[in-house]
Design a protein that fits this description.
The relative contact order is 0.27. The protein has two helices and six strands. It has about 100 residues and is an alpha+beta fold.
Length: about 100
């Protein structure tokens, strides 16, 4: 589960290893504006396409569109930004919560 403050942004019903890798990397680094591509490279997949597709999926099916993920323009990193700043009054911390 991904939250902004107390609001649920996205909840996963099925495992999403690539999305979880990106979110976990952001969480581990304290939610900087940009991180390097954390996805493991596989010989049979184009890493640039894989990262682009993962970013697209991170933005899909959000309950509340409070954050937006994007590429960094080099196809080697992921960025995020708040979408609605005034909706984040109070605790605007980002948290990744794993379902039990």
């Amino acid at each position: 589960m991904l939250r902004v403050g107390r609001q649920i942004v996205k909840q996963y019903r099925l495992p999403s290893p690539n999305q979880e890798s990106v979110l976990s990397a952001f969480e581990e680094e304290g939610w900087p504006q940009r991180i390097d591509d954390p996805l493991r490279h596989k010989d049979e997949q184009d890493p640039k396409y894989r990262l682009k597709f993962t970013i697209h999926r991170l933005n899909d099916h959000q309950r509340r569109r409070l954050i937006r993920f994007s590429g960094d323009g080099t196809a080697e990193g992921v960025c995020w930004e708040h979408v609605v700043a005034d909706a984040l009054a109070g605790d605007a911390s980002l948290k990744l919560r794993r379902a039990a």
